[in-house]
Specification:
Layout: H1 3-18, H2 20-42, H3 46-60
Helix pairs in contact: 1-2, 2-3
Length: 61
Amino acid sequence: MDKLTIDLDDFIAQKKDVDSDFASNFDSGYEEFKAHLLQADSQQSSSNKKSVLAKFKVAML
């Protein structure tokens, strides 16, 4: 793993410790995000990927 990955892992762990909403929703939200990306990838559509990413960004706000 590179430093960026380790920093992100540390950030997520710390955020889970201090934010109960984040802790209870992060794992399931991340799994849903990955499933949507895999689905978009299987359809070979870059516009689909952009749409999924845009929806994910809005949902995380």
